[in-house]
Each structure stands twice: as structure tokens, then as C-alpha cells.
User: Which sequence fits this backbone?
């Protein structure tokens, strides 16, 4: 799925940030076998499948009727989101994919007026920018877990999703060639 485009710069920034999280998580998930996807590396740790299911439950609760109802729905049972027993990779993937469809759909429907709204999550008031930032932080936290677990479980066959170790100079040259020189050493760097 390509990153949707919105006329509002703030909303477009959110779409871009969510798309980056999705890209990194998907890149990790795709490299994992079914067994790895459901592996718990130690007691008290979630599998990637459980994290995917949890994100799906969180997104469904937060974004369903978000303009008019609290983001923590009475029908949500967060504790069951981490139970993936009896589920297949396809089951978890469908939940995951639907979460992203929901996020993109709701952000694309967002208006300038919505940016000035106050909504609630667990009874606590949030401006819409605060609520979306909260969701981005939550997604980033779990995306990091997915990538870390994927990298650990896949091991030597891992295909890097960002700059691979030892590849910073090559990456910087690529970016320079693509976008221009930017700031050099001592020119505005802190």
C-alpha cells in the first residue's frame, strides 16, 4: 500500500510517519517464518503475532467513532489481544492489515476542523494532535519490538530495513547524490 496523500501538512506528516512504521514492521514480518512469528523468546515476552494482534485491537478501539466516543471502548478486552493460541499467520495478518486500513482511512477523512477537536481516551482529554501523537508513539514502540524480535529470530539471513552496520558512508553518499549536499561539517551542526 502506497502512502496516501493529504492536503494538510500536519496530517500528511502523520501519514508518512505511520507508513514508515508499517514499512519497517512489514519488512520484519515478511522475513519471519510462521514459527518465528509465534515465538516467545522468554517468559513474559510477547511474540510478534501477539504484538500484531494487540496493535489491531488498540487501533480498532482508538479509531472507531473517534470523534464522538472515548478511545477505550467498553467492548475492548486488551488482555485477550496478547493471546494468539489457535490463530494462524493469515489470521494475524488480516487483523494487522485491517488496522492499517483503519488508520489510513481515518487520517484521510480528517479535516482542518478535526485538528482543533478535543477527544477522550480512557476519560482523559486529548487534542487530536496529542491523540495521534500518542498513537504514533505506541506504534513506534511496538514496531521497534517487531523489528528487534525479527532480527534476533531470523539471525544471519536478516535483510536490513535501514542502514546496515558499516553502511553509513555509502548511505550518506546515496542521499547526497539524490538530494544534494545539505550541510557539511561545521555548517550549522550542533
Assistant:
Amino acid at each position: 500500500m502506497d502512502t496516501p496523500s493529504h492536503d494538510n501538512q500536519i496530517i500528511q506528516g502523520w501519514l508518512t510517519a505511520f507508513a514508515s512504521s508499517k514499512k519497517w514492521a512489514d519488512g520484519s514480518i515478511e522475513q519471519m517464518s510462521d514459527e518465528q512469528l509465534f515465538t516467545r523468546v522468554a517468559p513474559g515476552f510477547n511474540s510478534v503475532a501477539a504484538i500484531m494482534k494487540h496493535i489491531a485491537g488498540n487501533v480498532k478501539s482508538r479509531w472507531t467513532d473517534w470523534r464522538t466516543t472515548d478511545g477505550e471502548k467498553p467492548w475492548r478486552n486488551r488482555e485477550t489481544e496478547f493471546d494468539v493460541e489457535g490463530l494462524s499467520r493469515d489470521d494475524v495478518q488480516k487483523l494487522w492489515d485491517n488496522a492499517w486500513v483503519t488508520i489510513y482511512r481515518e487520517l484521510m477523512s480528517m479535516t482542518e476542523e478535526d485538528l482543533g477537536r478535543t477527544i477522550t481516551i480512557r476519560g482523559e482529554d486529548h487534542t487530536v494532535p496529542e491523540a495521534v501523537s500518542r498513537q504514533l508513539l505506541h506504534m513506534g514502540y511496538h514496531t521497534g519490538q517487531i523489528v528487534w524480535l525479527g532480527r534476533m529470530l531470523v539471525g544471519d539471513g536478516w535483510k536490513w530495513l535501514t542502514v546496515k552496520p558499516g553502511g553509513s558512508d555509502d548511505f550518506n553518499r546515496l542521499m547526497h547524490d539524490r538530494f544534494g549536499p545539505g550541510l557539511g561539517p561545521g555548517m550549522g551542526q550542533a
Q: What stands out?
A: The first strand starts at residue 118 and ends at 121.
